[in-house]
Amino acid sequence: MIASMLRWLDDRTGCASCLRAALYEPIPGGARGRYVTGSMLVFAFATQAVTGLFLWMNYSPGSQNAYESVYWIQNELTGGWLLRGVHHFMAQAMVALLPIHFAQVVIAGAYRAPREFNFWTGLVLMLITLGLSLTGYLLPWDQKGFWATRVATNLMGLAPGGDAARKLVVGGSEYGHATLTRFFAVHAGLLPSALVAVLALHLALFRRHGVTAPPPRGRADEYFWPRQVFFDAVACLALLVVVLLLVIRFDVGGLVAGKLDGPHLGADLGPPANPVEDYRAARPEWYFLFLFQFLKKFEANEFLGAIVLPALAVAYLFLMPWIGRSRVGHAVNLGTLAVGLAGALFLTGQAFFDDYRAEWTAYRPERFQADADGRARYNDRFRASRDYLAAVDDGRREYARLRELVAYHGIPTTGVRTLIDDDPELRGPRLFRAKCASCHSHVDAEGRGIAGPEPAEGKEGAVGNEPAGAPNLYRFASRAWLEGLLEPERIVGPHYFGDSAQGREDTDGAYPSGGMVEFVRDTVAAFDDEQQGKLKDVIVGLSAEAGLAYQADADREARQSGAIERGRASFSEIGCADCHEWGDDGIDDGPRLTGYGTVEWLVRMISNPEHESLYDGRNDRMPAFAPESGDGKANLLTLREIELIAGWLRRDAAPLPTE
Amino acid sequence: MREPARAPIDREPRRDFLWSLGAGLVGACASLPGWAAGLVVFLDPLLRKPGRPGRYRRAGAVGEGYVRVAAWNAVPEDGSPSRFAVIADRRDAWNYTPDRPIGAVFLRRVSDDDVIAFHTTCPHAGCSISAVRTDGGDAFHCPCHNSAFDVDGRRVARPGMTNPAPRDMDVLNHKIVDGEIWIEYVDFQAGRPAKDAKS
User: Fold this and answer.
1) What is the DSSP string of B113-145?
2) Neighbour tally for A234: CB within 10 Å
3) CB atoms B23 and A229 under 8 Å
4) pLDDT at A587 over 60
5) Per-residue confidence band for B4, with pLDDT thresholds at 50, 70 and 90
6) How distant, in Å, are the alpha carbons of A499, A590, A616, A624, A630 from that of A608?
7) In Å, how far is A82's CA from the nearest CA of chain B?
């Protein structure tokens, strides 16, 4: 019954005979393990087509949707991380297999007549695969993909007529919706269909000419089916297992225990594309790193390094069948292949080493004691590596914070960037770095954080050397911060006024621009034990004024024990009220301390330190970032931006509840 | 280049069978996981718990699922039906948008202190019903396939036509709190005699 149905089908379609022809292809010398690479590549592509199709059902190109939909696939959809992980790592496996398959062909001399076209179609397939990698890298619209694609398309602009080509690829001058829709159509439509067409040709030609490898003596010929198919299937399964292991980052224990966590779930997703900030971890995918590194050697002539030489290399590949016609030519091809692969490996290793130098090696500038140039170069490279690692770290932090923000707010239609740009914890330090860090630092006791200007150590007293620093604002208004401020030694140290005009001692031992410094250095230094105790109470009370979230428990205790009341009472007793106003006490000469350290106070200070309640007429050099109300033209920051800085300084952005 | 002639290929059915079995099994193991991963993601809408409120959805002030639709004063005094947009928090795949129009209801005063609320979706095939004023006794009319309903949402036959609706218009639960009308907004499966909420 079934047999007759199959016969009916075969009579009309010829499918059985077609299958028979496909499976009973004779292999001279029989099935061999080394013939599997081609099938593995076909398998990898098929997997990409299947996983890609299902990703397509959930992906949305567009600069406010691409990252968001990938985020959704990765974090919300059932099994989305697995699907995305397989697609991501199978792509890498495919690229890794290409040179192996290629080297086999060259070593076997399989490019020679009559198989030239087979070889050329293979090269075209290789280029298409690389094109798929390049276009796929952009689609998540994360920092890595965004910047790598910007670089790739900018380099394209170097070629003759490249400006127009770049515009066509990008879909205009700016990177945005049109870039994504174009890349997506090329990645999911144009290139895969081209690949299928060329692959069909490649396989047909392969069938026409058969396997090249010289049949081993004494082994009988065999058909493709079943032994070679078995070998191929085993190889493909092994490839899949490796890919799956990569997807879970080899955390088999976690998988078995059912406790795979975030970083072990599939492909990395970086922070979303941000065209505003510099991104020091912009790198292509690892298999393009050799080109990236190669280009570093051509800083003076990028056109040569990025376009001419790679184009010549590809042209050479296409000429290989002719070059290899003679014995000598074949040897030249083999040599070139070996040098090329070794060179690519070396450059890849070098690129990794350049990035991880600071992690893998100790900082040892003393090795270059005699050689100033060498030391400068070494320092540069070390700094670049540190920057890279810090940027990678920042990216991870940003993504982790983004997950909290999304869990709390959901993703608005304007995209995740809106959440990031309105979050004190993420935006605050960026604004601080851009607007405040030219004077202020923000570093903890171990020196981690945002460094201010280079310390003026050793420069002191030099003629015309203006002090450039201002206090370290790490945990500003906290008890610890105020304690440091009120210590005679530390107030003129590097974390307070040591590098600003207030902390400059004149020849008579006075501080002409720093009344506060003089007070601490003279009056506070001479405090007896009782006065010291009162000072402590003032610090506790004043710091509680800020209402800092991270100090809430201590503040509550102080309120209960009466320390805050005592602090208020001591405020005038130990002389603070001679210059400062706090509530009903004191005079408004120095900055008013009512509401000290609150968002409102900080906003007033950052907006205009010259405000009558602050450093009225005695401001050192701090700019007024928003002297005008509303969105005045003289304002360097918007009110919201100032609030974000203030919120960050106060560390208000505590982790948000996740449900 | 001429390749040397080779001896004809021997085939051993018994040995071939084992290799074939192995090739088939291993091949299936290699090719299925990609499909499986894709299908799981494809089936996500079914795997999600039905009816689970969006993670970010705020509970209505008067009860879970209730949204404020209109002020009492906005509903016509003469008892004629009037259409109101339902504004609620909407989850659209990855996006979450508070206060977006997600649908509409008809409200009609039935007494001095109560209303009746209808879903605007036709129970026949899911088109949008219009409120009309006709002499034929129908107050609601669906423009797609000529379903017609009276002011109380009951099916009525229009002259010379059959009414294709399998049930009366869908009435929605409501509460009136402090002069505001709140609706428990639910979508129902069209085309069936029973009023089943869509999962």
Assistant:
1) S-EEEEESB-TTTS-B-EE---TTS--EE-TTT
2) 18
3) yes
4) yes
5) low
6) 21, 15, 10, 4, 13
7) 7
Q: Do A230 and B26 touch (CB under 8 A)?
A: yes
CB of A244 less than 8 A from some CB of B: yes
Torsion sign across C-alpha atoms A441, A442, A446, A447: negative
- Rg from Cα positions in chain A: 34
ipTM for the predicted complex: 0.85
For the stretch A390-429, pLDDT in tens is 899 989 989 999 998 888 888 999 999 999 999 999 999 9
Q: Are B104 and B98 in contact (CB under 8 A)?
A: no
Q: Both tokens of residue A210?
A: 């058969």
CB atoms within 10 A of CB B193: 9
Chain B contact for A59, CB < 8 A? no
Which chain B residues are Cβ-neighbours of A410 within 8 angstroms? 54-56, 91, 95-97
* Tens-place pLDDT, residues A20-73: 888 888 887 778 888 899 999 999 999 999 999 999 999 999 999 999 999 999
CB contact under 8 A, A86 and B33: yes
Q: Is B97 helix (H, G, I), strand (E, B) or coil?
A: strand
Q: Is the dihedral of CA A77, A79, A81, A84 positive or negative?
A: negative
Looking at residue B132, its pLDDT comes to: 84
Interface residue A77 vs chain B (CB under 8 A): yes
Q: How far is CA A605 from CA A54, A485, A524, A584, A592, in A?
A: 54, 18, 26, 21, 10
A46, A72, A86 member nearest B37 (Cβ): A86
Q: Which residues are registered as beta bridge partners of A586? A: A581
Q: How far does the CA of residue B102 sit from the closest CA of chain A (Å)?
A: 15
Question: Which of the listed ranges A121-125, A392-396, A574-578, B15-19 does the model predict with the highest average pLDDT?
Answer: A121-125
Q: What is the distance between the alpha carbons of residues A645 and A513, in angstroms, rounded to a whole number?
A: 27
**Residues A34, A231: contact at Cβ < 8 Å?**
no
Hey, are the CB atoms on A51 and B33 less than 8 Å from each other?
Answer: no
In the predicted structure, residue A215 carries a pLDDT above the cut 80: no
Determine, for residues B23 and A225 on separate chains, whether the beta-carbon distance falls below 8 Å.
yes
Closest Cα in chain A, distance from residue B198 (Å): 21
Which of B11, B16, B94 is nearest residue A68 as measured by Cβ atoms?
B94
Listed in order, strand segments (DSSP E) in A182-262 are 222-223
Q: What is the DSSP secondary-structure string of A558-625?
A: HHHHTHHHHHHHHHHHTTGGGT-EETTEE-SSS---TTTTSHHHHHHHHH-TTSTTSSTTT--SPPPS
Give the Cα separation of A405 and A398 in Å (integer).
Answer: 10
For residues B62 and B182, the answer to whether their CB atoms sit within 8 Å is: yes
CA distance A378 to A370: 13
Interior angle at CA A599, CA A598 and CA A600, nearest 5:
90
| Cα A231 from chain centroid (whole Å) | 40
Interchain contact A226–B (C-beta under 8 A): yes
Name the pTM for this structure: 0.87
**Inter-chain contacts counted by CB atoms under 8 A, chains A and B:** 127
Residue B185 makes CB contacts below 8 A (sequence gap 6+) with B65, B67, B86, B88, B102, B103, B105, B172
Q: Do A54 and B38 touch (CB under 8 A)?
A: yes
Q: Between chains, do B23 and A236 touch, taking CB under 8 Å as contact?
A: no
A83 touches B: beta carbon within 8 Å: yes
Show residues of chain A in contact with B96, CB under 8 Å. 409-412
Domains of chain A are 26-282 (1.20.810.10)
Distance CA(A499)–CA(A458), nearest Å, equals 11
d(CA A381, CA A387): 10
The whole-number pLDDT of residue B136 equals 63
In chain B, residues with a C-beta closer than 8 Å to the C-beta of A234 are 26
Respond yes or no on whether the N-terminal peptide bond of residue A494 is cis (omega within 30° of 0).
Answer: no
Q: Is A89 on the interface with B (CB under 8 A)?
A: no
